Amino acid sequence: MTDKRLLGYLQRILNARVYDVAIESPLERANKLSARLGNQVWLKREDTQPVHSFKLRGAYNKMSRLSSAELARGVVCASAGNHAQGVALSARQLGCQAVVVMPVTTPKLKSDAVRDLGAQIVLHGDSYSDAYSHALELEQQHGYVFVHPFDDPDVIAGQGTIGMEILRQHQHPIHAVFVAIGGGGLISGVAAYIKAVRPEIKVIGVQMGDSDAMIQSIDAGSVVPLHDVGLFSDGTAVKVVGTETFRLTRELVDGFVSVDTDAVCAAIKDAFEDTRSILEPAGAMGIAGMKQYIAQHGLQGERLVAITCGANMNFDRLRFVAERAEAGEEREALLAVTIPEQRGSFKRLCQTIGQRNVTEFSYRISDEREAHVLVGLAISSRGELPEIQQSLATEGFAALDLKDDELAKEHLRYMVGGRSRLVGNERLYRFEFPERPGALVRFLSSMHPSWNISLFHYRNQGADYGRILVGIQVPDEELQAFADFIDTLGYRYADETANPVYHLFLR
């Protein structure tokens, strides 16, 4: 980019009107992340804005420059949620009507927030691009002023004030700033300011692997529209990047990182542990990309900034995030282990695992020769997995790594079970026991050798007490001995043998 064009964006950013509605968000050191990654990690907390996202900066900078006649016509925009909130808040501040077109996939938390700010909501399509097309139709039909979420110089300049604040707040050397990319407005503005003022600082873009329109466009040398996009990170689910944002990104951004869902879930957890805030997926992408960049380049002792650009997370998504965070951090191994279907094999499997923390066990008797057990184990690093697999192989247990198997992670782990023709004399019990290493082995070691485990399900829920569901084949003449056994364990339990759900789905 020519110095004159870069100077033009610098002037736009310095003169941007954002602080009528936005705050100067804090730049905070992430102490736990810094210690773990061996670098000084700083988080630019745009999640602390009044609408929990950076988007109000660009929206207000654009709308505050409209004439009285344009404001009287009203504005329309397309958004998956955060830009919509910025437009709605800006419209309320400026006293104009706002119509917001949102994909039907938009989290309810975001659509409710827009409605609460007084905007009219129109739900249309499955992605931002679908909503965008409909918003353009409404612009033509009703004469609204269209407020683009990213491909507008005034919007880009508004987002660029984040770069201005970072350099003012941290005047020491910075190796790189990591920025999530959807349509490219945020990274265009941040890169324009940083490259004009401190060009030695690297600006690194981060995209989801299933929504990487900018990366593909940069590689191709022209804007490449995607046929579809992933929806986990709804804030960056953009099929076509902007013409102006593509130009700025191609000329100013130093590199790109592509991250997956598990890595973003892990980054959400990282941010929570340092800030006690819960970021939305797009808001955590900068952290995920930074971690991946550190690993790829072997960085040590550098100052790094990640922009946490949003925190509009639906509560009901947290279960999924928690499940996938450990895999993303490579703290959990998920294995399909095959063992002989004979008494004692299950106990021997647990003994082989030893004192490793078990996160999940799922098993249902189904074959007279082999048993297939879904096993989750806490690990310290991915390099520990071959050692575990070798230990299992030594005992004659084949172990299939399921880390990259989406079928297993999204569905199979919740579906292991079902009816079996081999479950005569089965009793079904729920147990609660103190959540500590070795508890499962103790349980199994106490059992009479003639009692066969025919069903087992356990999932570590992060609580002080673990919960397991066990099916045990006990001959009628040994029921009293079995009752004495479970009483001596000292665990809370419930007999579910007569539960109608058990008979409908498992018996």
Walk me through this protein's architecture.
With 507 residues, this protein is of the alpha/beta class. The protein folds into 3 domains: 3-54 and 153-324, 3-Layer(aba) Sandwich (Rossmann fold), CATH 3.40.50; 56-146, Rossmann fold (3-Layer(aba) Sandwich), CATH 3.40.50.1100; 330-505, Biosynthetic Threonine Deaminase, Domain 3 (Biosynthetic Threonine Deaminase, domain 3, 3-Layer(aba) Sandwich). It has helices at 3-14, 31-37, 55-63, 68-73, 82-94, 108-116, 128-142, 153-169, 185-197, 213-220, 243-252, 261-275, 281-297, 318-328, 345-353, 385-394, 406-415, 439-445, 479-489, 500-505, and strands spanning 27-29, 40-45, 75-78, 98-102, 120-123, 145-146, 176-180, 202-208, 255-259, 303-308, 332-340, 358-364, 370-378, 398-401, 426-434, 452-459, 465-473, 492-495. Strands 14-11-13-12-16-17-15-18 form an 8-stranded antiparallel β-sheet. A 6-stranded mixed β-sheet has the order 1-2-10-7-8-9, with helices on both faces. A hairpin with a 5-residue loop joins strand 16 and strand 17 (465-473). The mean pLDDT is 90.
